[in-house]
Automatic annotation (TrEMBL):
GO cellular component: a single term: cytoplasm
Superkingdom of origin: Bacteria
The keyword Cytoplasm belongs to this UniProt entry's keyword annotation: yes
Domain PTS EIIB type-4 positions: 1-167
EC number: 2.7.1.69
Protein's recorded name: PTS system, mannose-specific IIAB component
Pfam families in UniProt: PTSIIB_sorb
Length: 167
């Protein structure tokens, strides 16, 4: 047995209102795992994230390596997990570490805009490096990588969106 990951989401805002309300209702986790090396080292951000978890759901902030170890540790088999990363790169590291996302795919909720990026959707910005990481998840790991802000919205295939914008 391994941990039950019910949603794997890339969201540059990590745990916020949409995730805490809509997504937790949709996937009914008992644990939110925020996976970020930088947030795990930042006591203020770590505290803020653990405090915004909805009632009845515990939030943890862990490094990428700690998440990989926990996934394979039978002590965490009871976790029904909503997994959040800040970047596609971190999600790719989790897949490379052996975490199986084949049943659920990878949800891309938001990627913050920075200089030199192109808007793919109203919430997802893209550059060549991120596009390559998404294609690796989709092609090398055979994962469904999709855009979906909230559960009520229709999923959009990320590869199709990348192709439309020339990535």
């Amino acid at each position: 047995m391994t941990m039950d990951i019910r949603l794997a989401r890339v969201d540059s805002r990590l745990l916020h209102g949409q995730v805490a309300t809509f997504w937790t209702r949709a996937v009914t986790p008992n644990r939110i795992m925020v996976v970020s090396d930088s947030v795990a080292k930042d006591p203020l951000r770590k505290t803020l994230i653990t405090q915004v978890a909805p009632p009845g759901v515990k939030a943890n902030v862990v490094t990428v390596n700690k998440m990989i170890r926990a996934y394979f540790d039978s002590r965490f088999d009871s976790f029904n997990t909503l997994l959040l990363t800040e970047t596609v790169a971190d999600m790719l590291k989790l897949a490379e570490g052996g975490i199986d996302f084949s049943k659920i795919g990878i949800n891309i909720g938001s990627i913050a805009y920075n200089d030199g990026m192109t808007m793919l959707t109203d919430a997802i910005s893209m550059n060549g490096d991120i596009a390559k990481q998404i294609r690796t998840l989709a092609n090398d790991f055979h994962l469904d990588v999709y855009a979906q802000k909230i559960p009520a919205e229709k999923k959009e295939n990320l590869l199709t969106l990348l192709d439309k914008k020339g990535f």
